[in-house]
Design a protein that fits this description.
Oligomer: single chain
Number of domains: 2
Radius of gyration: 19 Å
Distance between the termini: 26 Å
Structural class: mainly alpha
Length: about 260
């Protein structure tokens, strides 16, 4: 779970993005029973503790939605106060909650949530969850374009560009990586023999693992905005291009069946 920001920042987030801020708090609180389950439930699935994946999803989605709530201050005022935006934010929140319930429910029953083609019910749900994943990720695209077009953010030109690009690239790169991965039998390209993995994240150290590119893609909204501190728009463009090249390279490496580490 992420550390709570300064009280004044919290107040601003509740004002500009109440749905996203409330959802982030909800995700953090619902991670507590998962932590308890992880401590008392010794079961494992495919060589990993069974509650590891739900906890990873809670962490990843809480970081994502907190970031969106923070960046909402740079959206046009007319947008954050509109009924259309509130409805859209509610749909995004529903999709995130559905993803967490799906992954947590699969862990409860000790079955696979992703790539589960043996169970027709889970296979059908997997298709819906793919659509929900696109919807929840689209929030970064919508916000990125809106911030790009907003002349009254109060940001320096470089930071303005960096935040907009980071948000937009999060959607573009994630859809490519996740879309390709979901069309395959699994996230591995190749057949692991020993099951050697990178600690914590669980990436394969034997074969290609498309989760690495997916991880990088989802963090474009955190990495690219850092270039805005340089105060240089050309450096921001260079950082965005470099991050895109890195993610693409890791993605191609995974498709070739080669592990990152």
């Amino acid at each position: 779970m992420t550390a709570l920001p300064h009280p004044s920042i919290q107040k601003r987030m509740w004002h500009d993005a109440p749905v996203f801020t409330g959802l982030a708090l909800f995700i953090a609180l619902t991670a507590i029973p998962l932590l308890a389950a992880a401590m008392i439930d010794p079961r494992s699935f495919l060589g990993a503790p069974i509650w590891q994946k739900p906890l990873q999803f809670h962490l990843a989605l809480s970081v994502y939605i907190v970031t969106l709530a923070f960046f909402a201050r740079f959206l046009p005022h007319s947008m954050i106060t509109s009924r259309r935006w509130r409805i859209y934010a509610g749909v995004v929140a529903f999709c995130i909650i559905a993803e967490l319930v799906w992954v947590g429910g699969a862990a409860t029953y000790g079955i696979a949530s992703h790539f589960n083609t043996d169970d027709p019910v889970m296979g059908t749900i997997y298709g819906f969850m793919g659509a929900f994943a696109v919807i929840l990720t689209s929030a970064s695209l919508v916000m990125g374009i809106a911030i790009w077009r907003n002349p009254a953010t109060g940001l320096s030109p470089a930071m303005h560009l960096a935040i907009a690009l980071g948000l937009i690239l999060t959607f573009v790169l994630t859809v490519i990586a996740a879309g390709t991965m979901s069309s395959m039998p699994g996230h591995h390209v190749g057949i692991p023999v020993t099951g050697a993995r990178v600690p914590i994240v669980g990436w394969s150290r034997e074969v290609g693992d498309l989760r690495v590119a997916h991880f990088l893609a989802t963090h474009a909204l955190h990495v690219v905005p850092l270039a805005g501190f340089t105060g240089s728009r050309p450096l921001v463009w260079a950082a965005a291009a470099g991050f895109t090249a890195l993610t693409t390279g890791v993605f191609v490496l995974g498709l070739m069946g080669q592990p990152l580490i």
